[in-house]
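TASK: fixed-backbone design
INPUT:
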């Protein structure tokens, strides 16, 4: 993951990303607990208060938590541009995101407008701090690769998601009607197909060929996909907002979903062609993730062209995209990012030869256990989206178990790092 000429001083201290990574599984655990507490009622319809609370414990408490922490590290390490005041930005964004994600979930679950108002202020603050710092770093990038393009468009999509989310929070917290109720469609679409999908794609272009030794992504796809997704999302948003051209919204949704199916299938095919034949947990998580993205997109096509199809399919799309797609890829990436960062910072103390091999940070079997439990959680959640009673309890238990296994694994890796650091002769890491 190291770029030629990268200096350790460009990377923020290791505590910066680790703080985000260790908090994330705890929010997943909270989501599982809330799912168990609210039972089948959470899956009664698409946007029940419990479903909205669980959704944001995962999207903000888990996904945003890891993606924000990782971006503060990826930008200097993978792209070679330091984030200004990384330590202060990380401290503020982390604290505000923890309070904001918890308050928004409480606002939904307990029907408390005051909690929603607190969430709007804290989440607005968290994302404002993060977006200003990252946008500044991105303007200073020297080489505008496909990864940088993906990350720039992902950051823009995140800004749009946040603005739309705050408009919706103003409705829940202060009773202010949004300019259009199409925002209820636009906000999740920009969050999932915009921000999350584009960031995953931007990172995939670098890490899939590097970790699994696959051929590179075809250049037209690597550069064309982020631009096409962004333009299609903008056009689809305009069509959904105005809603006066019959069939246009559905056509654009199908094109957008088709783009994601192409990206996911390309990734799976590249992984089949990999030269590194030894399977690992990261590969398995990417495979679960890409299969889920392709399935979510296919179901979205069905919903777009057949509005009379059961509403439960919307829940299925959400589960596949959020837990099957985003949570899987993020979990897989953490098992590469955490050992890499540990090694990267340790070698400053002991030199590249003295730092332990990355595989030493966490064995394969705890990671494989996580893959298996997570796969059960994804399957159970998909089944519960269609048949909530009694499967929602199985799904909640599996999701909770997956969160606990991940938390334990990350703590083990962090402890190994601390033990190695204590043994190191100097403490520059
Ligand atoms: C500042 C941050 C955010 C705020 C304040 C916020 C707020 C909201 C609100 C108030 C709703 C309820 C809309 C309604 O009444 O129907 C909602 C729905 C939703 N949001 Fe967020 N959100 C934020 C970030 C995100 C992010 C980052 C994602 C995804 C990556 C996301 C995904 C969703 C989803 C999937 C729904 C459910 C839509 C539905 O099925 O009806 N949100 N959000």
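OUTPUT:
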């Amino acid at each position: 993951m190291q770029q030629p000429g990268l200096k350790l001083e460009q990377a923020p201290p290791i505590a910066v990303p680790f703080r985000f990574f260790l908090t994330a599984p705890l929010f997943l655990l909270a989501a599982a607990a809330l799912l168990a507490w609210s039972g089948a009622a959470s899956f009664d319809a698409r946007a029940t208060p419990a479903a909205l609370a669980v959704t944001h414990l995962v999207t903000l408490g888990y996904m945003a938590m890891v993606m924000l922490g990782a971006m503060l590290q990826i930008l200097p390490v993978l792209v070679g541009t330091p984030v200004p005041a990384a330590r202060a930005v990380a401290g503020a964004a982390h604290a505000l995101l923890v309070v904001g994600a918890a308050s928004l979930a409480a606002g939904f679950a307990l029907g408390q407008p005051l909690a929603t108002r607190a969430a709007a202020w804290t989440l607005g603050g968290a994302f404002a701090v993060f977006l200003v710092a990252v946008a500044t770093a991105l303007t200073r990038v020297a080489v505008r690769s496909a990864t940088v393009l993906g990350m720039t468009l992902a950051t823009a999509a995140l800004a749009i998601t946040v603005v739309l989310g705050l408009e919706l929070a103003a409705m829940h917290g202060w009773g202010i009607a949004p300019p259009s109720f199409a925002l209820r469609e636009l906000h999740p679409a920009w969050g999932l197909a915009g921000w999350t999908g584009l960031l995953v794609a931007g990172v995939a272009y670098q890490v899939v060929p590097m970790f699994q030794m696959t051929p590179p992504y075809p250049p037209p796809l690597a550069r064309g996909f982020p631009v096409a997704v962004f333009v299609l999302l903008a056009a689809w948003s305009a069509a959904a907002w105005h809603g006066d051209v019959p069939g246009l919204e559905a056509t654009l949704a199908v094109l957008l979903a088709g783009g994601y199916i192409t990206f996911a299938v390309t990734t799976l095919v590249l992984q089949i062609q990999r030269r590194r034949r030894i399977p690992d947990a990261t590969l398995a998580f990417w495979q679960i993730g890409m299969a889920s993205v392709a399935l979510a997109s296919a179901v979205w096509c069905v919903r777009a062209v057949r509005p009379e199809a059961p509403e439960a399919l919307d829940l299925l799309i959400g589960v596949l995209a959020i837990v099957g797609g985003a949570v899987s890829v993020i979990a897989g990436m953490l098992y590469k990012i955490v050992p890499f960062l540990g090694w990267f910072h340790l070698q400053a103390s002991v030199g590249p030869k003295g730092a332990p091999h990355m595989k030493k940070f966490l064995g394969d079997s705890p990671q494989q256990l996580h893959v298996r439990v997570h796969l059960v959680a994804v399957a159970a959640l998909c089944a519960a989206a269609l048949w909530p009673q009694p499967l929602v309890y199985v799904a909640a238990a599996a999701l909770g178990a997956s969160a606990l296994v991940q938390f334990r694994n990350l703590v083990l890796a962090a402890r190994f790092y601390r033990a190695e650091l204590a043994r190191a002769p100097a403490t520059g890491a």
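COMMENT: The two ends are 18 Å apart (CA to CA).
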